[in-house]
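User: Please run a holo structure prediction.
Assistant: Happy to. Please share the sequence and the ligand.
User: Here you go; the ligand is 1-O-phosphono-alpha-D-glucopyranose.
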Amino acid sequence: MIRKCLFPVAGYGTRFLPATKAMPKEMLPVVNKPLVQYGVEEALSAGLDQIGFVTGRGKRTIIDHFDVSYELEHQIAGSDKEQYLTSIRDVIQRATFSTTRQPEMRGLGHAILVGEVLIGFEPFGVVLADDLCLVEEGTDSVLTQLVNIYRRFGKSVVAVQEVPEDKVHKFGVIQGEELEEGLYTVSDMVEKPKKEEAPSNLAIIGRYVLTPDIFEALRHTEPGKNGEVQITDALCQLAKRGRVLAYKFKGKRFDCGSVDGYVEATNYVFENLYSNGQ
Ligand code: G1P
């Protein structure tokens, strides 16, 4: 059973400066809800209610967001504005939140290894909150889809989508053998390859279910692309032992770490999902 979900949220959000100078990128709102809340709601939808944040400097507002604000509650209690707090109250009631700090920015793999103290030796989810994943109402969230695969096979699972050749350099890319429709046994993984070196056009997006042997692999992972410890490189070690699956998820993914993706997400949510202030 998977109960824990790790949110690496220590990154600087440089692609969104100056907005992210004094504000975490994970707190950017898509319409009226911060990105990180979408992520936590997705974790809850998959049954993961123990949330762990790997934070860094300047990220306090994330923690405050998932705590009760007594002044605010007192101020608007009984007024019609209370409806705006419904979704966050619900999240706070259903989940627990723990944090640990990543003192140095040494890459996503390093952030996940720092999070080991919050996870222990059990399988867990990872959500990169700036990848906003949305599915049609009434269908499984992307993390739920991965958890369901994990339940069947007991292996680490990464979410992938097909991207155009000229975009592969922005992602971790997998090589795999199709096991059943949309599900691959991964044999190789490369972080942000040049298009001529990419093993496929199946790109990893920011949703993972990881088995705890990933921590040992991370301890033995040297800095890779951009001098950072890459989760892709650590997973590749497990993949060589047949321990990693990739799933072509059903749903939409918006790169909210970039202005284009963020605007696209905002328009989509406003037109399709926003109603009654929730
Ligand atoms: C990270 C991962 C990469 C993955 C991407 C998804 O890269 O390292 O493998 O494809 O997230 O968004 P980042 O975008 O943080 O540079």
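The domain at 4-276 is CATH 3.90.550.10 (Spore Coat Polysaccharide Biosynthesis Protein SpsA; Chain A).
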